[in-house]
Design a protein that fits this description.
By secondary structure, this protein is mainly α. The protein has 17 helices and eight strands. The strands form four sheets. It has a two-stranded antiparallel ribbon. The chain has a two-stranded antiparallel ribbon with strand order 3-4. The protein has a two-stranded antiparallel sheet with strand order 5-6.
Amino acid sequence: MKSCTNVGALMDEALAYVHAAGLALKQPSGSLPTPFDYLTWADACTVYNPDAEIRGEILDLRSKLIHRAHQTRRAARNVDSFAAARNRVLGVLLDDARAGYPELLHTMAFPPDAGFHPSSQLQSADVFTRAIVLEVLAHASARGYISCPSILGLGTDYLVRARRRDAPGGWSYFPGLLELPGDLDTLSQIAMTLHACRRDDLLAAHVTDVFAHYCAENTDGNFETWIYSSLNSVASVQRHWAEQAWGIGSDTEVVAHAIHAMRTIDAHRFGDAVAKMQNVLVRNHSDGQWTSTWYHGPLYGPYVAARALHGSENFVKIIDETCRVLFKSQNADGGWGIEFDSSDALSTAYAVLALYWSGRKSSESCSRGRDYLEACIEDGRFLAEVPFIRMDLGRARHCNGPILNYASSTITAAYVAMALMSIAE
């Protein structure tokens, strides 16, 4: 695997992106790429040169953009059919894509007082979340519900430019944060998105070998979430922060996500690794329940676990247990929620997807979940900012720490659309 070590060339590329970001500020809203797109790419190019002056320019420009940013809300309108409900959600996702995904940005401060490099103190990115939305749009396009070739083309280009440029490659949740290594979860989502967009060329060039490297590094079955740089100086920084802040070891939902991604892009090549990862996944369940490290609520885990174990008779009993838990936890209104007896669209979408991958899409429980989602679409609740990503700052040291949250109405809409399309198959 080749490693990009030409720092000068990367800096020239970053300068071009910063210049393009300035020009994009003068363009009317709704055009792509957006200023934030260019800054994300500039971040990815300069991450290994944190003392470069251009990092300060990126930080300053991002601060101004975030200050100017404003969120939009759409008025609810009535829908009278399943197809209309699905199309309304997809329409929202298309509108967001044309506007540059303003709802997807996840911004966090990493202050120097906490030990971060000064150029890292403000990070704003949407690589992972944008990949989720693009996968949904690609599946909708393949089914003939929408047509958006330019959005998919620009989207895959955005993802590829935001990748880590050193070996083994991959992607980091925040491309410009040196202290944060690439991770298996983001890699898996990028893989699924490129596959859905039918970009086998990009999978071969930027994804498959990273999975192969990861499997070779985890032959002991540990399946660490992080993918560390092959540059020793960078890897030492990343490992330090993983041990002190991010947490080390295997995360159940990340393993489940990777199983599905590797089976999808090359089941033969990754068959042995997938079998080992499925065994790890099964060991980490308890009475049909699956926990998540990085996601809010009790339902994301069952969704990705059911998908990862789908199709194998070896796991039928475990899937049955998971379904029994889902049936029992469904609320009277037909939905599910982060908290008991309080339904929300995102949790319900997870549960419906879990039932779909468990072979229960025709069940009464799944039908009631679909009815709940349609009701959410009718009155606009599918645009709620339900907590999605969670970062436990006490995890690495095994203590109680603050929980940092991220929510996005666009992400809620994306999972609702995914659930509706799945059960319509």
